[in-house]
TrEMBL record:
It is a multi-pass membrane protein. The keyword Oxidoreductase does not apply. The lineage of its organism: Bacteria, Bacillati, Actinomycetota, Actinomycetes, Propionibacteriales. This is DUF2029 domain-containing protein. Pfam families: GT87.
Length: 495
């Protein structure tokens, strides 16, 4: 079943986005009203092609570290090409094909990531060994675990392992772009904000976060197709890769309460719990103590990179892990309550990406660690919540600043860091990053309270393109008013 909005033409960014309009002047100006679509280069294909280019540029950005064979040292920080991937090949036993969470003897450090990342990393290791001719592991098992990298052939395998991981992760990046292009049927071009993102270029190979990003994008796509169970399954799989996809359920709850769709929310919860249990159960059975290291590690760690807590600690204040835990959960709980109130009291039902963005921002700004690749957590949500080039480029400009600042901090390239003093330049980068995210969240809150500012709803014709069709109204809705910004179209219907 289709709605009237689905029969409308696709939204053209060069007509509604000032930045896209201005940029188009260099190639002939905005697309004409009567322009015929290209028979091959559909919006989705263009977006996937751009995603491929950006991902390849991200691989090229790692070239200095690849040329140095990932041997460590300050080159990886000076060139801002660091990645966790090659170091975990030997650091977590993949060079010996050690199954994640199964090393009860303590030869290697336990995999400190959730199970989907463990499975993916192990699968990439098997591909690496297959491409290397299934090397003999005898020499590796004869030396201590921290010396395996020095065994002949292992260094080359580590380099190959990074390449294999990059190729496999790129598939998830393309999948995320495809999902985003299909989430809003009339707005496939919004996904270009993901495909051409500077944050995607710089951060996608730092860690395995693209697995969770693809799951979140897929969950939003499935919900927009009226498939709450599948949406929940993808949320569960994403949560088994990184914790943050779980927060998507909070946004779904608010919308389902507002729209009286609690059965759909129940299906989503059922799918999420079932999928999470299914993938977590094997390591829970064969290595429970190793499996729970992710949870204990994050509970016990102190203030770390990128966090406001690190600034507070380096300023000379006492910061304990338990104190951070308590303060962070109180803050995050307050944010969740505020988002619930905002969602229930707003003049129109907020869109799911808007609420999810606010929840994830609330989680990140007080988190113990704020790694540079965490920008990817917000990227698909920001693309759908605020599809405007200006706003996303301002936010990502702060993220790019932080991306380079953190490597300079770790490499101790600033004068204050080299002298052993607190690195105030790094503090500024952290504060600018957090301020930019809070600003973006503030813009989204404004869009919720004044829906005529929302780019998705500003035409006065679109309600929530992620919601399945609703029955036509048979009587006027109290409170309907005309939006002067939408050419006299009726808009801003409380729902």
């Amino acid at each position: 079943m289709s709605t009237d909005s689905e029969k409308l033409p696709l939204v053209r960014p060069t007509h509604e986005d000032p930045v896209a309009t201005a940029a188009s002047e260099g190639i002939g100006g905005p697309v004409g009203e009567h322009a015929a679509p290209h028979p091959f280069w559909t919006p989705v294909r263009v977006i996937l092609a751009v995603t491929c280019v950006v991902l390849m540029l991200g691989m090229l950005q790692k070239t200095p570290c690849v040329q140095a064979h990932w041997t460590g040292g300050n080159e990886r920080y000076a060139a801002a090409c660091y990645s966790d991937v090659p170091y975990l090949y030997t650091g977590r036993g993949f060079a010996e094909r050690s199954v994640p969470y199964s090393d009860t003897g303590g030869r290697y450090q336990v995999m400190e990531y959730p199970v989907v990342i463990g499975y993916f990393a192990y699968g990439a290791a098997l591909v690496t060994h297959a491409l290397s001719g299934w090397p003999d592991l005898t020499a590796r098992s004869a030396v201590p675990g921290d010396q395996v990298f020095s065994v002949p052939g292992v260094a080359a395998e580590s380099w190959l392992y990074f390449q294999v991981t990059a190729v496999l992760l790129a598939g998830f990046g393309l999948l995320a772009a495809w999902f985003l292009a299909g989430t809003h049927r009339r707005r496939p071009w919004d996904a270009m904000l993901f495909a051409a993102s500077p944050a995607l270029l710089l951060a996608w190979l730092v860690n395995w976060d693209l697995l969770a990003v693809a799951a979140v994008a897929g969950a939003l796509w499935a919900w927009s197709r009226g498939r709450p169970l599948l949406s929940g399954v993808l949320i569960g799989l994403g949560t088994a890769a990184k914790l943050y996809p779980l927060f998507l359920l909070g946004a779904l709850l608010v919308v389902c309460l507002r729209r009286r769709r609690l059965p759909a929310f129940g299906w989503a919860v059922l799918g999420a719990v079932g999928a999470w249990l299914l993938v977590n159960l094997p390591p829970m059975l064969y290595g429970f103590e190793q499996w729970k290291v992710f949870w204990s590690f994050n509970g016990e760690r102190g203030a770390d990179l990128g966090s406001l807590w690190l600034i507070w600690q380096q300023a000379g204040h006492t910061v304990t892990s338990s104190g951070i835990n308590l303060a962070s959960w109180i803050w995050f709980g307050a944010v969740c309550v505020a988002v619930l109130a905002l969602g229930l009291l707003a003049p129109r039902t907020p869109r799911i990406p808007q609420l999810a963005l606010l929840i994830v921002v609330g989680f990140l700004v007080v988190n113990k660690v704020y790694s540079p690749q965490y920008v990817l957590w917000l990227l698909p949500l920001a693309v759908l919540a605020r599809p405007r080039w200006r706003d996303l480029l301002i936010w990502q400009g702060a993220e790019v600043l932080y991306f380079f600042a953190v490597w300079f901090y770790l490499g101790q390239f600033t004068a204050s860091a080299a002298s052993g003093q607190p690195d105030h330049a790094y503090w500024i980068a952290i504060l600018v990053r957090v301020a930019a995210e809070l600003w973006l969240a503030g813009v989204v809150v404004r869009d919720i309270l004044a829906p005529w500012h929302d780019p998705v709803r500003a035409d006065g014709l679109t309600d929530d393109p992620m919601e399945p069709p609703r029955a036509a109204r048979t009587r006027p809705v109290p409170g309907r008013r005309v939006n002067r910004h939408a050419g006299g179209q009726q808009a801003d219907v409380p729902s």
